[in-house]
Backbone:
C-alpha cells in the first residue's frame, strides 16, 4: 500500500488559538503500533473542550485532536501480529495503556494513570493518517460503513458503558439528558436496543423531532421551556426515572438529576462541563438510596460489544458529513448547541 510522505491535518497550536489546517508529515508506527488511513472522523464535544482548555489536564502542544477515527490499516509495527494491513480499524479515545497496573490487569484500562489519550495527550484523528497502539485499536468488521461507525468509537462506546453502569433493567425508564447531541442520540438508540424506555431531555424542535420520531424516545422534555424535574416525575407516575444519564455540557442538570431519579436508581455522570460540580440533598439521597456515579468511556470489550450492536443494525443515529477542512465551523455549531446528532468529517476533503 503506498503511503504518502505528507498529509492534511488540523493543528491546535494552543488553547483557543486559531486551528491551522495544513500539511504535516505522515507519522511512522512504532513496533507495537499501527498506522490507520482515517477515512472519517467524528467530532466529539471532548475535542472542543480540548481546544478551549476547559479541563484541569493540559493538551499536548501542537495537538492534532480527534478520537473517533474509522479507516483502513496501512502499516503495522514489527511486533504487531493480530492486526493486518488492509484491516478496518478505529482509533478511539484510549489510544494505549500500560497493560500492567492494577486497572489494566482488571480490564479497566480507561483508569490507567499512564493511558495515552487520542487527540489530547497524543495526536488523534483530525488527520488523514493516525497512529494507534495495536492492542487498543477497535476492530471494525469489513462491510460496515466507515462514516456511520466512526461515532460509535467514542460516543457509542461511552453511552453503552454508561447504560450498563446504570444497572437499569429491561423495561425500566432511563432519562437521557443531552439526548439531541452526539452522545445523546446514540444513547437513545442503545437504550432502546437494551430494552429501556427513554425520556429524552434537550431543547428545540429539531432535536425534539429527532428524539421522538427518528430515535424512538417516548417523551421529550425541553430544558429551556419545561420544569425538567416536574415533567420527568409526571411522566413516570411521580416516582422519577430508574436511571439518569447526564450527557449535557452544562452544570444545571447535574444539580437537578438526583431530584427526578427514582429511589434506588442511579445518576450516571458522563458529560464534562468546565468547572462543574454536582450536588444533591443528602437527606433525600440517603432515604431514597440514590446512587450517583461517574462513567468514563469503556474498555476494549465494551468497544467491540458497542460495534456489534451497530453491526446488527440496532443503532441508527443521524449524522451529518462535512470535510476535515471544516472543523472550525463544526466547533462553532457545536458551541451553540446547533448540531442534532453527530458531525463526521471526511478526511479526503
Ligand atoms: P454535544 O454538544 O453533541 O451534545 C450536548 C447536548 O447537550 C446538546 O444537544 C445540548 O443541546 C444539550 N444540552 C445543553 N444543555 C443542556 C441542559 N441543560 N439539559 C439537557 N441538555 C442540554 O456533545 P457530545 O459530543 O455529545 O458530548 C457531551 C459531553 O460528554 C461532553 O462534555 C464530552 O466531553 C463528554 N464526554 C464524556 C465521555 C466520558 O467518557 N465520560 C466520553 C465522550 C464525551
Ligand atoms: Zn469523545
Residues:
Amino acid at each position: 500500500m503506498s503511503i504518502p510522505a505528507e498529509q492534511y491535518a488540523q493543528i491546535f497550536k494552543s488553547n483557543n488559538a486559531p486551528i491551522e489546517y495544513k500539511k504535516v508529515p505522515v507519522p511512522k508506527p512504532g513496533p507495537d503500533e499501527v498506522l490507520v488511513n482515517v477515512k472519517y472522523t467524528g467530532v466529539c464535544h471532548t475535542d472542543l473542550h480540548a481546544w478551549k482548555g476547559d479541563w484541569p489536564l493540559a493538551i499536548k502542544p501542537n495537538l492534532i485532536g480527534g478520537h473517533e477515527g474509522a479507516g483502513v490499516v496501512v502499516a503495522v509495527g514489527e511486533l504487531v501480529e493480530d492486526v493486518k494491513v488492509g484491516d478496518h480499524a478505529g482509533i478511539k479515545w484510549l489510544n494505549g495503556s500500560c497493560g500492567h497496573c492494577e486497572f489494566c490487569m482488571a480490564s479497566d484500562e480507561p483508569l490507567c494513570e499512564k493511558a495515552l489519550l487520542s487527540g489530547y495527550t497524543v495526536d488523534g484523528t483530525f488527520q488523514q493518517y493516525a497512529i494507534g497502539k495495536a492492542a487498543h485499536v477497535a476492530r471494525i468488521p469489513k462491510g460496515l460503513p466507515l462514516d456511520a461507525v466512526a461515532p460509535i468509537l467514542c460516543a457509542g462506546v461511552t453511552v453503552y458503558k454508561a447504560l450498563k453502569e446504570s444497572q437499569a433493567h429491561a423495561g425500566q425508564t432511563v432519562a437521557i439528558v443531552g439526548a439531541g447531541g452526539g452522545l445523546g442520540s446514540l444513547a437513545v438508540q442503545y437504550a432502546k436496543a437494551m430494552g429501556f424506555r427513554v425520556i429524552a431531555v434537550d431543547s428545540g424542535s429539531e432535536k425534539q423531532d429527532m428524539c421522538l420520531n427518528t430515535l424512538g424516545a417516548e417523551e421529550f422534555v425541553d430544558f429551556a421551556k419545561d420544569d425538567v424535574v416536574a415533567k420527568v416525575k409526571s411522566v413516570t407516575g411521580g416516582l422519577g426515572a430508574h436511571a439518569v444519564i447526564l450527557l449535557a455540557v452544562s452544570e444545571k442538570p447535574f444539580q437537578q438529576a438526583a431530584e427526578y431519579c427514582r429511589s434506588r436508581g442511579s445518576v450516571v455522570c458522563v458529560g464534562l462541563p468546565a468547572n462543574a460540580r454536582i450536588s444533591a440533598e443528602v437527606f433525600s439521597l440517603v432515604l431514597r438510596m440514590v446512587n450517583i456515579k461517574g462513567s468514563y468511556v469503556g474498555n476494549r470489550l465494551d468497544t467491540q460489544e458497542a460495534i456489534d450492536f451497530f453491526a446488527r443494525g440496532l443503532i441508527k443515529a443521524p449524522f451529518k458529513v462535512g470535510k476535515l477542512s471544516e472543523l472550525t465551523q463544526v466547533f462553532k455549531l457545536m458551541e451553540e448547541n446547533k448540531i442534532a446528532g453527530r458531525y463526521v468529517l471526511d478526511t479526503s476533503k
Remarks:
- The chain has two domains: 6-154+298-346, 156-294.
- The pocket of zinc ion (ligand 2) is lined by residues 44, 46, 67, 93, 154 (CB under 6 Å).
- The longest strand covers residues 33-43.
- The domain at 156-294 is CATH 3.40.50.720 (Rossmann fold).
